[in-house]
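Notes from the 1:1 (GR / supervisor)

We went over the backlog. Supervisor wanted to see one worked example end to end before approving the batch request, so GR pasted a single chain during the call. The sequence is below; no edits were made to it. Supervisor asked that the structure be written out right there so they could see what the output format looks like.
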Amino acid sequence: MSKQEIQRFDIGARLSEMAVHNGVAYLAGQVAEDASADITGQTAQVLTAIDRLLERAGTDKSRILRAQIFLADRADFPGMNAAWDAWVPAGHAPTRATVIAGLARPEWKVEIVITAAV
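Structure output shown during the call:
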């Protein structure tokens, strides 16, 4: 029995930005590059980064299976949802969980983890 190949993208010492295995893409938590933006701006940046990674895996946001969203502040929920709702394709909303969490850097307002079919 042969092992299934695991393809890793943007491998670092601590983590890879994405791994693809057995037809599924697993994205690391994505955060905004410009942390000075408000929650809607940070969320839009994160969603753009997700689009880019999914494209590299040969898939897109219509094939997302699960999204895990981490917010630093519960008050940012409406602003995050505004960016999310504008981004998710109609009829393709994935399963999703949103939690309030202390993120690794205080300037980050949102982090999103995605699992998608390839």
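Supervisor's comment: The chain has one domain: 23-117.
Batch request approved.
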